[in-house]
Every structure is written in C-alpha cells, then in structure tokens.
Amino acid sequence: MSEFLTDKAAAELAHQDAIKSEEAALERETLLEFPCAFPIKIMGPATIDFNAQIRAIALAHVGEVPESAWRIRPSAQGNFVGMTLTFTATSKRQIDDLYRAITAHPDVKMCL
After folding, report:
1. Number of compact structural domains in the chain
2. CATH classification at residue 52
3. What is the pLDDT of residues 39-83, one digit of tens each?
4. CA atoms in the 13 A half-sphere facing the CB of 78
5. Rounded CA gap, 13 and 73, in Å?
6. C-alpha 75: how far from its chain's center?
7. Residue 60 phi, psi dihedral angles, 5° rounding
C-alpha cells in the first residue's frame, strides 16, 4: 500500500517540486556562470572577534579558502574594518545563503 499517497503526502511532494522548480528558475535568473570568482565585502568593527566570526560564517558556506582570498582594510581612524572575501561561487543559492548569514550578524554594518 506504500504506492498510494495520502492527500497530505501528495501536497508535500507537490510543495517540494514547486520549491525545486522555483530554485531552478532563480538559478537561471543570474547573469553569472558558475563556478566563478565572486567577491563579497563586509564592514564592521575592527575587532579580533568580529574577524574570527565572519571567517567562521564564510567557512560554513564556502569551505576553506586560502589567506590570500581575504583582503582586510582598516578605516582611517581604525574603528572599523572592511573585509573582502573572493571565493569560487558554485551557485546563486550559495551566494545568497552566505549573504544572509553575514548580514544576520549583529555587528555587520554593511555587506555588498
């Protein structure tokens, strides 16, 4: 009897199919061709903790990157830092997920 679906199970499968279709359409919307080098810029306080936390977020979304992938620039007065990570993006979803995770950090002032 496992070949018959309940209404709830059928609705869930239809919902999952709709999500997959929408994700595929969003993936086609971008002008980027994957994989590609993609820079993301983050601005926040010039602290060791902030640097480490942003790197941990990046690690979770893009994996290990060489130190040369990071560019760190302090502000004129040294209170803030601009961090640029250039990584090999594999999908629009990866970029979007990384952006959302970074902007969710309470100390991030700007992310481009």
Report:
1. 2
2. 3.30.70.260
3. 999 999 999 999 999 999 999 999 999 999 999 999 999 999 999
4. 1
5. 48
6. 25
7. -65, -25
Residues 25 and 76 reside in one and the same domain: no
Considering the domain architecture, whether residues 13 and 42 belong to the same structural domain is answered as no
Shared domain check, 88 and 59: yes
Domain that holds residue 75: 36-111
* pLDDT tens-place string over residues 89-111: 999 999 999 999 999 999 999 99
Secondary structure string (H, E, C) spanning 25-74 = HHHHHCCCCCCEEEEEEEEEECCHHHHHHHHHHHHHHHCCCCHHHEEEEE
Q: How far is CA 84 from the centre of its chain?
A: 13
Go through the chain and tell me how many residues it has: 112
Mention every residue, 6+ apart, whose C-beta is less than 8 A from residue 88: 35, 36, 37, 38, 62
Q: Answer for the pair 16, 82: CB distance below 8 angstroms, yes or no.
A: no
